[in-house]
Amino acid sequence: MEKRKYEIDETLAGTRVDKVLTDLLEVSRKRVKDLIDEEHVLVNGKCPKASQKVFLNDILEVEIPPVEDLEVKPEDIPLDIVFEDKDVIVINKPKGMVVHPAPGHYSGTLVNALLYHCTDLSGINGVVRPGIVHRIDKDTSGLLVVAKNDEAHASLSEQLSNKTCKREYLAIVHHPFSHDHGTINAPIGRDPKDRQKMTVTATNSKEAVTHFEVIENFANYSYIKCQLETGRTHQIRVHMSFIEHPIAGDPKYAYRKTIPTQNGQLLHAYHLEFDHPRTHEKMSFTVDLEEEFASVLKQLQEGSF
Q1: Which of 3, 34, 88, 209 pairs as cysteine with 229 (C-beta 3.0–4.6 A)?
Q2: Of the listed 87, 137, 139, 250, which one is catalytic?
Q3: What is the per-residue pLDDT across 45-54, written as a single tens digit (0 to 9) for each?
Q4: What is the pLDDT of residue 68?
């Protein structure tokens, strides 16, 4: 991985860090944004926001990962399509399916399936993530919306940014609650001890807000509904672990002794609302629990766990 280091002089002082890097590296603003979001950029040793300004004598460091010549191929993988028109496609993603190609998962992803099914996905996120506006984790099941053109992508991204897109999840978590609802407002960033995990931290983090409501308490677990106000990586999983109610079956954030599952955490994106990017009609979708989640819930209700 190439590393570069710059000391800010008078000609660059007072300029946004993304503008400085766009000029210095001679790459697109989108490429610079990705480098910042993936924490490959430091200003005086700390991860900056793209809008942060740099000043005289600041030290700007950037890591440039090698560009992979990756061809994402269409694959004939069945999709559970909840809704589709010429602008958007709403998918009920099964547990175990990765959303977009990444190291270790170059085939069998939702993107591979979408490329086979669609010929007109938005190109804003590039060849690896065409049409992908938001994502859900590999072992989280449920709803996500994909953009089929750039106009739809821009509209949906704006709705996510403005927090007008409603995303609700169902989860089974450890321990019953003594209260019936709550809000977790705790910033999330990369775990410095384990780069594969996220954690609640005040260092190099971003705002994260999760609302939750208790549906049913059991002896050792609880069945809850969560609504995302922000969309950080692993947000619900990290937040529920932070308040000592980790999601059952979660291999990263739950206890070692948890409900055994075939495919990780019992977390399901069951409800999605957004304004249609062309007609501005309110779109609302709800899907049933996936099979394993429904089975575990039934066993809890029968007192088996």
Answers
A1: 209
A2: 137
A3: 999 999 999 9
A4: 56
Tens digits of per-residue pLDDT, 93-123? 999 999 988 767 778 999 999 999 998 888 8
Given a cut of 60, whether residue 138 has pLDDT beyond it is yes
Q: Does residue 137 have an active-site annotation?
A: yes
